[in-house]
Amino acid sequence: MAAARRWGRRRLWPAAIGVGVALALVGYFAVRFIRSATSDECTAHGTDGTTVTLDLDQASHAATIAAVAHAHGLPERAVTIALATAIQESKLRNLTYGDRDSLGLFQQRPSEGWGSPAQIRDPVYASGKFFDALVKVPDYLDLPVAVAAQDVQHSGYPEAYASHEAMAATLADVLTGQEGPALTCTMSGVGKSDADAAQADGGSGTDDAGAGRGSGTAGDVRKSGDGGGVAAAVRREFGTVPAAVPATGDSVSYPVTETATGWSLALWLVCHAGALHATSVTFDNRRWSSGASGHGWMTISPASAKSSAVAVRVTE
Length: 316
Description:
Elements: H1 2-38, E1 41-45, E2 51-55, H2 56-71, H3 76-90, H4 117-120, H5 123-134, H6 145-153, H7 165-175, E3 183-186, H8 194-201, H9 228-238, E4 245-246, E5 251-256, H10 259-271, H11 273-276, E6 280-283, E7 286-289, E8 298-299, E9 310-315
Antiparallel strand pairs: 1-2, 1-3, 4-5, 5-9, 6-7, 6-9, 7-8
Helix pairs in contact: 2-3, 2-5, 2-10, 3-6, 3-7
């Protein structure tokens, strides 16, 4: 009987430990999910109902990859391949470490001729080098994403890229401007209140929730004359886009002739709004405001149709 009691006590220890571990895990995941629900983030909405949510750092890198592809004159499929690669290699983080001497978004290695460490950790440079290698792959547009990515990366885990194709395709479709205002970003505690910003924007004060699209992030754009740092960043990432044109007040405009290009630039500005200090981005009769990021892309009064060109406008 005593032996039985001792055995019973011994059996209680694993059970107690198991309960403790379970509670610890519940606490851990609760914290993770609470933090995720309240953190600044961007969400892309695919046409098939798929949503992809990234934090602002990840979103800015995804938008940069799409912008550099635009500068290289490359199609959406190339963006999908690049995004699937960067998701696998770095989770869209500009890493300072990696296997051996691998660095950056694509885990490129200085010793393999990708560039200096400083160059590789420049997302614009790294994206450009990836695309330079990708276009040399014969028939890369017709290859499976994982095969095309592997032909560039020579990874020890070539099958891993395929698992990120759906996410990458959704992001590529949205960030190349094919789906209009299909990306939302939110940033808390910056700028005017939502009500003030909605009134200042001249919008209805309602978002575009019915279409599953909207929103923005935060900040205020700094410009001097032709857009200052914003103009330089646009030129560097998008390449040959029309030069910035000073608009009214603290705004600067970028005339575009294609709606998809305009939305690609507008979404890029929103994804980078924190770094660029942008208070609002306007395009195609929609406006995102940093102080009203919860409202999404609000509809504004119809733009003037005096010119065949439309313009993306960013405001301080």
